[in-house]
Specification:
The complex is a heterodimer. Chain A is mainly beta. Chain A has a domain of 65 residues. In chain A, 14% of the residues lie in helices and 40% in strands. Chain B has 5 helices and 1 strand. In chain B, helix 1 packs antiparallel against helix 4 and helix 2 runs antiparallel to helix 5. Classes of the chains: A mainly beta, B mainly alpha. At the A-B interface, helix 1 and strand 1 of A face strand 1, helix 3 and helix 4 of B. Strand 1 of chain A pairs antiparallel with strand 1 of chain B, so a sheet runs across the interface.
Amino acid sequence: MTHRSPLFTLAGLVIAFAVFFGINLANSAPRQAVDDGYPSASPTANTPTDQPSPVPSQTATEEASPSGSPTETATQGAEDAQFPDKVVYAGRTKDGSAAIAVAVLGDRAAAYLCDGRNVESWLRGTAENAELKLQAKSGDTLEARLEGSKISGEIEINNEKLDFTIGEAKPPAGLYRAKGSKTTIGWIVLPDGTQVGIQTDDQGASQAAPELDPNRPEVDADGEEVTAKPVEGNEEI
Amino acid sequence: MSAVPAGADDSPVSTPDVPAQTRLGPVLVALAIGSAVSIGIGVYGRLHNPTGQAINLAGFSSGLAVKAWLTTLAFLFALVQIFTAMILYGRIKISGEWVAPVHRWSGRIAVALVVPVAVHCLYALGFQGYSTRVLVHSSLGCFFFGAFVCKMLILTRNDSPSWALPTLGGAVFSGLTALWMTAALWFFSTNGLTF
């Protein structure tokens, strides 16, 4: 071996990879939650380069939020037999192809399935006796049962059945909708911060939704400013 | 060709006048190891469940912006590398002791800058193919690190064929450029030149 410094460079590369992987691993807890109702803004960083945290939530680091939602989860998850009065579930279908969110308010429910590109469906229906039965105007249906703090069931969309088991989503995760005169946008914000959304115009053309900024619920939809609101469950959609 | 570049400090820069005896074997071994690295990264990117988490850094609008600016900075250092490489190979008539160390260090800095970006890409997004841009970016991401490993390995020896280093240097630079175009440039063109 004539020159060793390239090996030092390689060693440095491997160490750097390991360090940043470690940071990513250490900062990825299964669920990040914030106490406030709507995504809050506190874009501070503790590390010089890489502080992974979910979008749009800002405070979800291990040091910053040990308190807050875990207590809420405990009280809400204690009820097995009935849905909580107000709850939102969000996650992915079992095959991972789409995101799905269900908002429950009392005995009413609203749901949204979205693959972030061109497949979406808004459904509404009832939440009774730990069972969800929803339908879309297009004929798609969703049926699910409450199992602890998760809901498990299937959605039939375009004659295709997709299974899902999804857990509760605390703000800022959840289901959001913005409706303008020409466009409707739906977003599912998953507990890990990923956003999946579709924007559809009145001709039925769909595209991926613009990113929902935690600081401003106002979004530009083809020139028209619309406001994203959390879906509660009793909307007629 | 020009004189040996001022690499008296154990500079691992191959010179135009290589020893008469060049060996292909070590080059093939280096290529094999680089390929294994590329494939390994690709397999990890495909098997690992992407978490979708974002980087959050004060002053930037989003994690994507952080990555776009980091890689743009890396690209600038890569340009310095190309410039100094051309001097080392006599294409640009400048001389000085600084050329080889600047070449090495601009390269190290460029790679150091892209590591957090690459790790985040791999961890949060994974190897994706849902659009051409994303497929090209994912593939090149694997390719880039394999080529870089290969280049480093070849640099440890003096007996590589004269085409080996320029080819690998070019591959690394082209890879980085295309990676930058399929991600940072795309980000700036859709979001504007924003922080």
